[in-house]
Amino acid sequence: MITDTGPADQAAQEPAASPGDELLLDVRDLRTYFKTDDGIVKAVDGVSFSLERGKTLGIVGESGCGKSVTMLSILGLNPKPGSIDLEEGASRPDAMIRALRETSKFTSLSTGEAYFGSEDLLSVSRSRLREIRGGEIAMIFQDPMTSLNPVIKIGDQLIEAVLLHNDVSKKEARARAVEALADVGIPRAERRIDDYPHQFSGGMRQRVMIAMALINDPQLLIADEPTTALDVTTQAQILSLMRKLQEDHGTAIVMITHDLGVVAEVADEVVVMYAARAAERAPVNSIYEQPMHPYTWGLLGSLPRLETDVERLMQIPGQPPSLLRPPPGCRFSPRCSYAFDRCRRELPELEPTTFDPTHSQACFLDEETKLGEARRIVRAFAVDEGAA
Q1: Which residue, of 231, 251, 267, is where some domain finishes?
Q2: What is the pLDDT of residue 384?
Q3: Are residues 149 and 188 located together in one domain of the fold?
Q4: What's the CATH code of the domain at 346?
Q5: 4 falls within a domain
Q6: Residue 5 domain-assigned?
Q7: What percent of the chain has pLDDT over 90?
Q8: Which of 53, 278, 326, 336 is 20 to 30 A off residue 62, Cα-Cα?
Q9: Contacts of 212 (CB under 8 A, 6+ apart)
Q10: Taking the complete model, does pTM exceed 0.90, yes or no?
Q11: Among 248, 267, 286, which residue terminates a domain?
């Protein structure tokens, strides 16, 4: 049965189970499929992760792996979204594909669970989701120039965000907007509030987006490539600003990026995504000290290091698979030099490692081989303290 994402007049049902008080966001087996002229795209295909209050989760991977769609699905921001009620014993992927093919009302379907506190964001009403977006959960989109309305003053856009979620006067909202701009380091905020987006540099526009996202003191901030197209100095300033604001407000952050250097600097935990699935999930130190998936090895090997003399960076052969027709078995197997027959037949699930229950990976390679390769990767790119 195909249904809308939640009629406005339908109250959200209390979930059967919810995460503990220490968890702010708990995503379970999230799937999002899109209907296109070429077929059904499995953009997110069984992703699970959680985030504690006040912590930072980094989601990394190549372009097109499903990082942004994962968070857009949670917020109900995909185009023409819908949901389905699964019959008992039905295959979820098959049911989603069949539902998309049989209806013209929706172009995307999402299933799974995404608990924000005690509420499942995938089943709450539309009106409740609108209250949550911008109030309790805020998002910084990739391009600040296209995210800001070019014909409306910065101040008016900030004031609107305040008025939508708070019962305050326009004067109070303006004062809060000036304070938010000052908090993110924009000089002469009381004057710049009346400027248009084109009068700000790229870095300053990104600061405006951060101010808009944090102006209502959200519990969760989703930052989608917040440092893209910024010079390295501005990148460092933006990351430092986000860390400071997190310390001041206790906001949890989901950092979506393809830059492992950014992740190392800001994240507490990392989810490595490949072809719409999670390949590895671990605390940030564990990802860099004991990476356990061949795809993660490739990402780490491709990082340039100033302290090492490397003529050529590691290169992952081949191209990511089409999400219209992903390969059978492990989706990384066509590009993996360690793949064997089982990898090409079975789809590996995230399983905890024997040495650390908080470190999970989706790979059939034996753990001894993976630990050996992890040590080799870490040694190859470690700082030579003796030379330093």
Answers
A1: 267
A2: 38
A3: yes
A4: 3.40.50.300
A5: no
A6: no
A7: 57
A8: 53
A9: 138, 157, 158, 161, 180
A10: no
A11: 267
90 in the same domain as 186: no
Q: How far is it between the farthest Cα atoms of the chain?
A: 68
Q: Name the amino acid, one letter, at 192.
A: R
Domain count of the chain? 3
Residue in this structure with the two tokens 């701009």, named with its chain if needed:
181
Provide the total of helices (H) and of strands (E) in the chain, helices listed first.
Answer: 14, 14
CB 220 within 8 A of CB 116: yes
Helices marked H in 280-350 = 284-289, 294-301, 341-345
Structural domain of 170: 134-267
Average pLDDT, the chain: 86
In a domain? residue 21: no
Burial of 156 (0-12, 13-18, 19+ CB in 10 A): middle
- Output the pLDDT for position 278: 97
Element (H, E) at 282: strand 277-283
Residue with tokens 């492992």: 260
Q: Is the pLDDT of residue 333 over 90?
A: yes
Backbone angles phi, psi at 324, to 5 degrees: -75, -40
Model pLDDT, residue 14: 40
Q: Residues 323, 230: one domain?
A: no
Task: Note the pLDDT of residue 231.
Answer: 78
Same domain, 321 and 357: yes
Q: Which residues pair with 23 in a beta bridge?
A: 52
Query: Which comes out higher in pLDDT, residue 92 or 351?
Result: 351
Shared domain check, 158 and 48: no
Which residues fall within 8 angstroms of residue 24, CB to CB, at 6 or more apart?
Answer: 51, 52, 53, 116, 117, 219, 220, 252
Residue among 268, 296, 271, 289 at smallest CA distance from 363:
296
The 3-state DSSP class for residue 346 equals: coil
Assess if residue 232 is contained within a domain: yes
Query: Is the Cβ–Cβ distance between 334 and 327 less than 8 Å?
Result: yes
For residue 289, give every residue at least 6 positions away whose Cβ sits within 8 Å of its Cβ, in sequence order, or none. 374, 378
Q: Return the higher-pLDDT residue of 281 and 201.
A: 281
The answer to whether residues 108 and 80 belong to one domain is: yes
> Considering only CA atoms, which of 66, 206, 51 is closest in space to residue 137?
51
Q: pLDDT band at residue 103, thresholds of 50, 70 and 90?
A: confident
| Stronger pLDDT, 21 or 235, i.e. the higher one | 235
